[in-house]
């Protein structure tokens, strides 16, 4: 029987969560932005010799859904916190909003930090808009620093539009979740084996 994991993806509205999930689960990049409320995608991933069934939960990043979103966290095996590398606000919200929320509702669940839309770092129009407000794209080094600050398992970047590192994001998240399950089982066994 294949293992089944629940991966929950959070982040600001428009940061690239849904595109990342759609490209991975369905192979299609959405051409227009359509905010999602709550969506579930199911797919499988091969990790070594193991086939793992994934239930991927897309959550709403908008404030209107702050009270509903925690319902999607129940029984999560790993949480992906996403931000848009071209949005300093989205990046700041990782530590201001998403990390505190996920830490509260998902104690002990491994976290993965994802920088989305990396293709836009080279897009002249997006760079011009950012610089017109005296801002710069978020760098890989900044993402790594935030990853350490929130004690996430790993920091990864991707471009759903060009399918760059999309597979890696989900393989890595799956491996992290499987390792956390193994570790929890070992700790449970050790607790049972008390010699007096």
TrEMBL record:
Gene Ontology BP annotations: actin filament organization; small GTPase-mediated signal transduction
Location relative to the cell: Cell membrane
Subcellular location, principal: membrane
One family name in Pfam for this protein: Ras
Family under the similarity heading: Belongs to the small GTPase superfamily. Rho family.
Organism lineage string: Eukaryota, Metazoa, Chordata, Craniata, Vertebrata
Keywords: Cell membrane, GTP-binding, Lipoprotein, Membrane, Methylation, Nucleotide-binding, Prenylation
Domain of life: Eukaryota
Protein name as catalogued: Ras homolog family member F, filopodia associated
GO cellular component, one term: plasma membrane
Organism: Crocodylus porosus
PANTHER family found in the cross-reference section: RHO FAMILY GTPASE
GO molecular function: GTP binding; GTPase activity
Keyword Membrane among record annotations: yes
